[in-house]
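All the exercises in this workshop are built on plain-text protein records. Sequence and backbone structure share a record, each on its own labelled line. The question running through the whole workshop is how a given chain folds. The record below serves as our worked example for the rest of this section.
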Amino acid sequence: EKPKPPTPSNGTDTWHTYNVGDMEVLSVTGGREQPYSKVVVLLHGGGGEGNDYVYQYQSGWLGNLTGMKYVFPTSPMNHLWYGSYKNGCGLLQDCAYNLSSIKISASRVAALLEHERALVGGDASNVFLGGFSQGAQMTGYVALCEIDYALGGTIVMDGFPLPPLENMPGASHADAKKNATYYGQDMRWMIYHGDADPIFPVELTMQTWGGVFDALEIDSTLKINHTEPGMTHTL
């Protein structure tokens, strides 16, 4: 049984539920209806839901929420951000993925980013996007292949690059950039991966992300690149 979000009357923070881009969204803002200046959108893993992050909140892992809003959407696509195929195709092959489902989810997440951006004065540098597993994969796709501006930060936790990103390593800068919607030097990236991850092998994952950043000439935007010893595929 998943933990239910605490009601605002039981604590010092404010919870809301709403719908944006066909997604049910749960949010928590620091304080009792207090203003905030930064918003962090976190995407759940495959088969999960926005409510999964209530555990992190209740454990105190989100820290002091003063001036902050955290936003947890749930994908309406059977709790998946994209469809995949068990057809012998691997992580580096487009045939492993339902490409249209990636695009649909990305447009939904982009709509949510626009919604939240408007609530912090329209300044995208106050909006952060992160995710775990499939949510991390969607985060990377949205930042490079869906939106055309820099966020305040992009946080990839245990996620492998989705098409067309996984084809970029080794490609020419021009060819890679043709398949991206944004590759500005004002981006700020964090990649965090478990070195015992059985789903996305750490060496292949980090090499592929490195190849993406090289091809797009955005190496300097990778501000935090961390491999956690002993960590499996877990939030």
